[in-house]
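The following record pairs a protein chain with its ligand, zinc ion.
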Amino acid sequence: MLGQIVKLDRGFPLVRLEDGSFVRCKHAVDLVKHGDSRGVIGDWVELLMEDGLDNDLDNAQILRILPRKQVLIRKDPADRTQPQILAANFDLIIVTQPLAELNVSRLERELVLAYETGAQVAVVLTKADLAESEGQIQQVRDSVADMVGDIPVLVVSADDRESVAQVSQLIGDRMAVLLGRSGVGKSSLINVLVGQDVQETTPVREGDGKGRHTTVSREMVFLPQGGCVIDMPGIRGVGLWDATDGINAAFADVVQLAQSCRFDDCRHEAEPGCAVREAVEDGSLSPRRLEAYKRLRDENQANLDAREVAQRTKERRGHPRTRGQGSRGKRVRPRK
Ligand code: GDP
Ligand code: ZN
């Protein structure tokens, strides 16, 4: 029997079956024994329904995880040489940032993570009602649109149903992941999308109008029009896992310029004939953006190097190279 993981409950996945019913499962022993093969939200899984396994868990076992299409992946905060997959098989990833308190570096990092998934990417700027003026809304929206190129950039406030309707429309009947730091208004947005309070939110603190840390569980929420959203709560750390493609996509402007550098492997530091540094000098590329690019590029490289070292140490101790922990350039998922 096939189903999709819609929630992780203390390690026990809640699986939605094709008839719309839900079962709480455990992983088959064989599955977990062979390395890191636990299900994540969005995974399609093959189940064994059996009598007498464990009454609490609806007698269902996950036998197999079907190959993942998109995955949202970050560096495991506990072990930088390991990946952590946060969600799988979504079609759209929505990066959220508060319009009036936009953090450009954070947005760039989130975009890298988002692009790396291979899913469609969109940006939603939240809490537009906290903006000083219409002018500020337009200015922020334009500057973000400038930065991201072709992808949709929407502006919402939770109390403006029309603005949220645009997000509904964008999602349609697809599966979307909401990415963004806690407090940006993801749960509030989901509640309006659903039309009722399904996600817990925290009241605004007195005085500053900002929210506090709120959502804790990670689950798929089904929308009236047929699609669904997954909130990614509390992913404060968005450490990059092999994010080379994501960086290149999020910094398409830099990559484009780099094609005119004299050296193919130009690092845009002190090399002669560097078109990227020239662009900074003539004002067509902001120095801040080049710095952000280099920071993410170097961080990504440092992670890849750390993994390579960890892998070699492991091999010296006689462990074979396992899938998913491969060397530079190897991927843990297929490209779409
Ligand atoms: P999450 O952590 O991203 O899920 O954020 P929440 O949805 O819990 O929102 C955090 C806080 O911001 C809560 O106090 C919300 O009431 C508040 N909030 C959410 N959306 C809006 C909005 O559009 N406008 C304003 N002014 N406050 C909002
Ligand atoms: Zn260069």
